[in-house]
């Protein structure tokens, strides 16, 4: 092993967050000169550590709080940093790990946790002082992430009716690629379920030997057995979330194969997992609202058409309309009955268990022509939207306008890791990634009280993009010319893009400040994207999206995610952005009129428009 390789191995043990040490040694003339003169000596090793891990912004922050001695922080100084700069009201959890590092006696689990935050070597002295390496490790650790890790567990009220939540939803879940000739697979269901998705789709068709199959009808996509899919669902339904899973059936089965499908369901799932009409009198009570996610924990709900009579004598017209629905299939439908979308006014009068699905264009038409009524409907009922049939490449529509209107289920093609899918992953990152996030009450207030009478939250968001560490070219090219786009995606879509970064000792520096005036932050997302100046958004270095409600202020790390099909939080490299976040001027304001916003296509422009119709047919 050469001196360079030995030094790289040693440095990697001390610097777990840095994965470009061999490249840094190769490109840094001063480091190579030291190695040539002194070999793998202590002095060379110290110089390499200083070069690789003492980042100018973090070092300046360290020295700002190192009042006693510029070489370390006392515990009091570190506490001051957490309180004053990071806005951490109760830093005891972090300080407990700090004390454990300096005390020497820890249980194994605490030791591992402390090492993940402060690093294993050269971090905290036995005297209890924090060295620059430990401080740098902390700044770039998950403990100091821009996403509030308290929101990585279920923290919202889960006892409200289902229609009070946004629900992570998938379209044509079985497909691995495009809509015309790609593979269908059981593994696609596994990966989508393990991402936290709570509504998946099964397109059911008659198969050979009375055995139902799943595929995209009238296309060249491959076919898979419905029973195999059910077995996969049974195994992985609650891997990521204990809350109810909705199986949305697009049912093209004959009566005989519907009966077979029902038998498969009964065999695949444990007794009581799938509610049915025999043991539920939910419809008989003429309920006004659905049960809560908490009440339906561990349940699998079937969305399909159902007989309106529940086995009782119905009119000839009703019987004729539902003649293609097997009674056994109908009896599995309790809380999510597929229903036709009539007019918005008529939809408001539907039963709480009637669930309507709209293609994206029809949903947007209803939204634009009567947004208040559309918002009222979304507040009272489960409404599902799905991509237009012409999206053969499995691209996705923008779900944010529909979330702005309170739509519970914006079903997306999970196999396409595009911007829309990235927004969806960011939306459901909070609340433990359980697939259910509580809708902000302000949405229903806007719908029922009117825009002019409903003050909404407003604040100024300021982000200063400081530096990027361990950034890699998306096409593995050696030269990277990175720039950063910061977006606020909410009732308005706001974005600003930096100039290309300056290269400083193998890391990238921007020092650019962006400010945004944000209305209704409760429904907004923050998306940070790093891209190469040449390739732009077509092939990004990485991105991270999170709800503004989960945003932490102060100096924060952003760990970039690289978009891959079905790999929603892929980290091929430990690539980071360091930024400073500040929220100021928090107040209540009435939304501006349509003519006073920058984007005519924004949600604000639509819901404050004077030209909306009272009702609409779609």
Q: What features would you describe in this structure?
A:
- This protein is of the alpha/beta class.
- Helices cover 31% and strands 20% of the residues.
- The protein is built from 21 helices and 20 strands.
- The strands form 5 sheets. It has a 5-stranded mixed beta sheet with strand order 4-3-2-5-6. The protein has a 5-stranded antiparallel beta sheet with strand order 15-16-12-20-19, with no helix packed on it. A 4-stranded parallel beta sheet has the order 7-8-9-10.
- A hairpin with a 7-residue loop joins strand 2 and strand 3.
- The N and C termini lie far apart (71 Å).
- The C terminus is likely disordered.
Query: What would you report as the Rg, rounded to the nearest angstrom?
Result: 27 Å
Provide the spatial order of strands within the biggest beta sheet. Answer: 4-3-2-5-6
Q: What structural class do helix, strand and pairing data support?
A: alpha/beta
What amount of the residues lies in strands? 15-25%
Number of DSSP E strands? 20
**Average predicted confidence as pLDDT:** 87
> What assembly state would you assign to the polypeptide chains in this entry?
single chain
List low-confidence stretches.
311-315, 614-618
Task: Give me the number of helical elements.
Answer: 21
For the terminal residues, how far apart are their CA atoms? 71 Å
Which word captures the global form?
globular
The largest β sheet comes out as: 5 strands, mixed
Helix content range: 25-40%
């Amino acid at each position: 092993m050469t001196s360079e390789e030995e030094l790289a191995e040693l440095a990697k043990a001390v610097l777990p967050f840095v994965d470009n040490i061999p490249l840094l040694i190769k490109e840094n003339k001063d480091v190579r000169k030291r190695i040539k003169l002194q070999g793998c000596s202590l002095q060379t090793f110290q110089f390499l550590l200083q070069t690789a891990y003492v980042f100018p912004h973090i070092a300046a922050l360290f020295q700002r709080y190192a009042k006693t001695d510029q070489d370390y922080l006392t515990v009091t100084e570190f506490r001051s940093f957490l309180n004053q700069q990071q806005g951490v009201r109760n830093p005891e959890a972090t300080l407990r790990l700090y004390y454990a590092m300096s005390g020497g006696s820890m249980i194994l689990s605490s030791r591992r946790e402390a090492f993940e935050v402060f690093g294993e070597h050269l971090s905290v002295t036995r005297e209890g002082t924090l060295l620059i390496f430990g401080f740098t490790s902390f700044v770039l650790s998950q403990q100091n992430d821009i996403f509030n890790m308290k929101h990585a567990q279920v923290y919202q009220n889960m006892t409200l009716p289902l229609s009070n939540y946004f629900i992570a939803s998938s379209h044509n879940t079985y497909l691995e690629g495009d809509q015309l000739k790609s593979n269908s697979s059981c593994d696609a269901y596994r990966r989508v379920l393990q991402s936290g998705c709570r509504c998946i789709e099964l397109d059911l068709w008659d198969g050979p030997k009375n055995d139902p199959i799943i595929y995209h009808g009238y296309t060249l996509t491959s076919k898979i057995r419905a029973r195999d899919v059910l077995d996969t669902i049974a195994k992985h339904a609650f891997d990521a979330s204990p809350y109810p899973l909705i199986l949305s059936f697009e049912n093209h089965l004959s009566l005989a194969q519907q009966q077979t499908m029902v038998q498969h369901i009964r065999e695949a799932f444990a007794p009581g997992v799938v509610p049915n009409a025999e043991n539920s009198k939910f419809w008989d009570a003429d309920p006004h609202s659905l049960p809560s996610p908490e009440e339906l924990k561990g349940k699998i709900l079937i969305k399909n058409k159902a007989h309106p009579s529940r086995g009782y004598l119905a009119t000839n017209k009703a019987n004729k309309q539902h003649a293609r629905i097997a009674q056994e299939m109908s009896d599995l439908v309790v809380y999510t009955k597929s229903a036709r979308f009539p007019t918005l006014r008529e939809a408001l009068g539907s039963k709480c268990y009637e669930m309507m699905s709209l293609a994206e264009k029809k949903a947007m038409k209803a939204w634009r022509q009567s947004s208040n009524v559309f918002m009222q409907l979304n507040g009272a009922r489960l409404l599902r939207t799905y991509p237009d049939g012409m999206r053969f490449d499995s691209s996705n529509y923008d779900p944010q306008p529909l979330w702005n209107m309170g739509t519970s289920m914006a079903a997306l093609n999970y196999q396409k890791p595009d911007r829309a899918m990235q927004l969806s992953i960011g939306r459901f990152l909070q609340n433990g990634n359980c697939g259910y996030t509580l809708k902000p009450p302000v949405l229903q207030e806007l719908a029922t009280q009117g825009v002019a009478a409903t003050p909404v939250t407003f604040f100024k968001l300021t982000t200063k993009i400081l530096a990027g560490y361990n950034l890699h070219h998306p096409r593995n090219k050696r030269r990277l010319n990175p720039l950063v786009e910061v977006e606020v995606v909410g009732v308005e879509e706001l974005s600003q893009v930096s100039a290309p970064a300056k290269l400083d000792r193998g890391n990238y520096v921007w020092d650019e400040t962006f400010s945004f005036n944000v209305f209704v932050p409760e429904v907004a997302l923050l998306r940070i994207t790093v891209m190469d100046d040449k390739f732009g958004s077509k092939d990004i270095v990485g991105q991270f999206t999170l709800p503004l409600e989960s945003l932490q202020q102060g100096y924060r790390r952003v760990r970039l995610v690289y978009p891959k099909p079905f790999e929603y939080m892929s980290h091929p490299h430990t690539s980071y952005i360091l930024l400073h976040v500040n929220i100021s001027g928090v107040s209540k304001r009435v939304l501006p009129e349509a003519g006073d916003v920058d984007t005519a296509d924004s949600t604000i422009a639509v819901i404050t428009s004077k030209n909306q119709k009272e009702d609409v047919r779609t």
